[in-house]
Design a protein that fits this description.
The protein is built from 4 helices and no strands. The protein is mainly alpha-helical and 93 residues long. It starts with a helix and ends with a helix.
Length: 93
């Protein structure tokens, strides 16, 4: 019995080292959880993982674009004020 316990512990440790997957907990509103339960054959963890990967990819692309941008912070503030002024005029008329 003792030998079996040691084997299972070694296998568990080996699995953790090879896999290196981390777990996290997300909060899902009850109404969404109930909808998800209707489709119990769906691997929701995989869907969430893919959505996170997609979002990270998008954010990395945005950072690259910003790094290549010639606009300064001051330029973006001025541009933002011009856009706001234009929108106010557009919706006021």
């Amino acid at each position: 019995m003792l030998g079996q316990i040691c084997k299972s512990q070694i296998l568990y440790i080996t699995f953790i080292i090879i896999n290196q997957m981390k777990s996290d907990i997300i909060s899902i509103p009850e109404d969404i959880k109930l909808e998800m339960e209707k489709f119990s054959d769906i691997n929701w963890s995989e869907i969430v993982k893919n959505a996170i990967i997609e979002k990270i990819s998008f954010l990395e692309e945005m950072e690259k674009s910003l790094d290549r941008s010639a606009l300064t912070i001051e330029d973006t503030i001025i541009l933002g004020k011009k856009v706001n002024k234009s929108l106010r005029k557009h919706y006021k008329d």
